[in-house]
Every structure is written in C-alpha cells, then in structure tokens.
Amino acid sequence: MTQPTLVEIRQLGVRFTKRDRHTTVFESLSLDIREGEILCLVGESGSGKSVAAKSIMQLLPQPAAEYTQGQIRFGGRDLLTLSEKEMEAIRGKRIAMIFQDALSALNPVYTIGTQMIDLIRLHAPSRTGRKQALAQAKDLLKQVEIRNVDEVVKQYPFQLSGGMRQRVMIAMALSSRPELLLADEPTTALDVTVQAQILRLILKLKREYGMTVLFITHDLGVVHEVADRVIVMRSGELVEESDKAELFRNPKHPYTRQLLGSMPRIYFEEARP
Amino acid sequence: MSGFLLEIAGLNKVYRTRGGADFAAVRDVSFQLGAGETLGIVGESGSGKTTVAKMVAGMLPATSGRIALGGKAFGKSGRSRADKKKIQYIFQDPVSSLNPRLKVRDLIAEPLKLYFKLPPGEIDKRVDALLADVGLPRDYRSRYPKELSGGQCQRVGIARALAAEPSIIVCDEPTSALDMTIQSQILELLKQLQLQKGVSYLFIAHGLEVIYSISHRVLVMKDGEIVEQGDTRSIFHRPRHGYTQSLIGAIPRIPFPAFE
Lengths: 273, 260
Known about the structure:
The complex is a heterodimer. Helix content of chain A is 37%, strand content 27%. Chain A is built from eleven helices and ten strands. In chain A, strands 6-7-8-3-9-10 form a six-stranded mixed beta sheet, sandwiched between helices. In chain A, strands 2-1-4-5 form a four-stranded antiparallel beta sheet, covered by helices on one side. In chain A, β9 and β10 form a beta hairpin. In chain A, α4 crosses α5 and α5 packs across α7. The longest helix of chain A is centred in the C-terminal third of the chain and has 18 residues. In chain B, α3 packs across α4. Chain B is built from nine helices and ten strands. Chain B has a single domain, classed as P-loop containing nucleotide triphosphate hydrolases (Rossmann fold), CATH 3.40.50. By secondary structure, chain B is α/β, with parallel strands linked by helices. At the A-B interface, α8, α9 and α11 of A face α6, α7 and α9 of B.
C-alpha cells in the first residue's frame, strides 16, 4: 500500500565554501518523498533540514553551495542536471515553497492583489487578463479560508496579521497547482491558536487536492499534528525514519528519544474533546 | 502588610498613537508574586506580557498603577540603584543581549562592580562561583560571546542576573530562541537555581508547554488584560475563561511514548 515516490534523493552531498573553508552539510543523504503524504523533517538548528528543502528547489546560495555528489529525482529527471532555464519551469510551478517569515517573503510595496495577479499571469499558459487573474486570486484566497477576500486583495502585507500573511503565502504557492509543497517552519512564528488553524489548512490541502508536502519543523508537537511519516535529522544525517505513530510509540534511535524526552510536556488527563 | 514579595496593583500602560487616540497596551493589571515562586505570564503576540515585564523591571515607566517590592512602592521618579539590583532581567535573544566586545569574565563582573564594593580578588572569586552555578567551565571566562553557543550565552545571561543577588528575575522568553534539547537544560537550570537561592521568577513565554513546566501559578493575558489567573494545574486542566480554553485546546497533544 506504499504510494509511488514523488521525489528520490540519492546519496546527496552538499557543502558550503566560505573563504576557502569547506563545511559539509551532507556527506550522503538519501530519502524519498511519497505521493500524497506529509513528510516531516525534524531536527535542531544545523541538522540540515532546511538545506535539504532548498536543495530540492535549488535555492542554495551560489557559488557558496556545491552539490558534491548524488541525485534529486523528480518527475523522471535529476534536478541537479537541469539548466537554470529548465529549473525555472519547475521552481514555483511544480514545486512551491513557503517560509517561516511570510512578511519578508512578500513584497512590501505591492498590494496582495497585485502580487497575486502578477504571479498568476506569470504561470498562466496563455494570455490571462488582469481581471481574470484577479478572480483567480480571490478564488485561491477563499481556498485558504480567507473570508474578506475583496478587502485583502487591496491590502499591503504589513496590514495583515501573521496568520493571514501565511495564508496568503500558501494561496500564492497553490496558484500553480504544485505537485509538491515545501513548507519550511511555516508556523514557527505564529501564536498557538493561529498555528492550529494553519496546520488544519495544510491537512485540508492534502486531503482535498492530494498535495504532497515536505514539512520542516523543530517542533514535535507540530509533527504529531500533521505528519504521515517522519524523518529525524542531526548534523546532516538521517537518524531515524518512521511512521508517525511508530515514532511516538516506539522511538528507536537514542537521539529521537532525547528529543522526545526534552520536550516540555503537559500531562493532560483527558483526551482532546 | 501582606506576605507577598511583589505586589502589582492597577497597572496601566497607555500609548498615544499618531492619530492622537490612546492605545492601552496594558489595562488594570494586578497580581502578586511570592518569595521563591514562579509566576508564568502567557498570552499571544500583542497581549501585553512583555510590557508588563518591562514595567515590573523598571525598564519602562508605567502610565499609572502601583508596583511594590517587600511592601514598599516604587516612586514615579525612577528607581535607586539598590531597587534596581533587586529585580533583574533575562532576555529572549541570548547573543545580542551580551556586549560582543566583552569577555565572559567582564560581562559577569559588570553587575558585581555596579552593585557591590568588592576587592578585585573577590570579584574573580565570585565570577568563578557564578560560572559554576550556571554550569559553565571556568576557562570560559576568557571567551567572547561569539565563541559560545546560544545556550551557553543564555547561561552567561543568567549568571549576570544572579550576580546582582536579586530577589526577582524577570525572564522574558529566555528559551524561545533555543533548540529543544537546550531549552529543557536551561529550564532545569532555572528551577535548580530557584531551589538553591530562593529567587522568584516572573516568567514570560508564549510557549504553553514551557509555562506549564516551570510555573507555580499562571496568569493569562489577552489584549492588555488579565483574563484568568490561578495555579498551574487548574489553569491547564480546568480553564474557566473561554480564551484560556481556546489556548489550551490549540496545544498539540502527544501521547506518551512507551519508553517513558
């Protein structure tokens, strides 16, 4: 009952060079992302979880970052062998990414409507008029459960709350109907009640559109809410890979146990209503 | 005369906005903090928790209200050095809250020189004792902040606060910028130091798990007001106010793994 694989990372090596000093992030990282799943990459700072996602998007800073070996296979091709032009047809289209800091990811001097219209027209196969694009933008905003879409399209990013901005980011990511969404700590900067809403939204997108999500987080509580499968990383290495239920029931690696053990926990007597 | 160490009554902070309208960041906040106790303040961004913390620490003037330590109210005109010494502060960002040009030794010696008249040899001895208190090796005294990890910088921040021998330390999100495993070490350290020294904490955090793990009592804030306060167990297990219920309800619940 294993779903087909959407992304295969094989023996990926990544290193950074700064003033002739090399830092190896991955010696050899291999992992699969399966179609329709939410795969959580968990780890502390420096574990390489963000670098893994940025490698897929090829968003690592050039020329500081170097792929020393390996492949990233997506849609029958190795992304590492594609030209920048070929990559542009994938980045932001078939693979989209959302970030922790939605405010700095949005352009501060354009309204949400303008930014979305530009993006939709960029991705549109044929000529799409501004009016038509605006209608699509509003549709997308409704899909991420924004109610007052007519107001929001006229607003600037600074006028929106953190949760609303993250919804707008997700709506923009959805505009090209991507097969894969890379979510890099998308709820870390949010308050707990807003975090819960965004997590529910991501679960809905998976359920209703069959979207595949690579979800990066350091928070095991978040993992427990959204993950199908979990990969625990430490210092550029895959420490443990497991189904969510199994990970929480029976963590095998000592580091996973240490992570679980170091979580401050609330001892709730009763189950969630 | 009540037995509380710190008494806050009717505290307000009002900002005048550009349009001339008043914005009340903190409204009519009252609470007490006992000796050796940890009072947690939770609330989402903009709830006023840091504003309360800064007013208590004397870093921000209150618009009105009473802040009394040991039965004696602080005056409007600023605090004496002796008063400042009694309430210390630990910051969220452990790295940028330390002067990058000072070595660990000098960072910790600073409050010692400010608040005590000590011979140089005694300062050195106290720096070493404080390093030991916060679990840093003695040879860290000659390091600079940039040579330390985030968790180690926070230990230096805690040593600086302890150096003044305060009766209260205001902890403003002291573990929010740290990794999980480091966060739990710092929380353990703070608990231990409280047992050893009897210091009280006013502990601000938006992470509910952190508040649960360290607080004896909890105060829930929303839009500048206290919506509920009580002992930690009753706040988390039997929240009465609708807002507290929605906060507690939003916490991801994880079953306990078999290995525990």
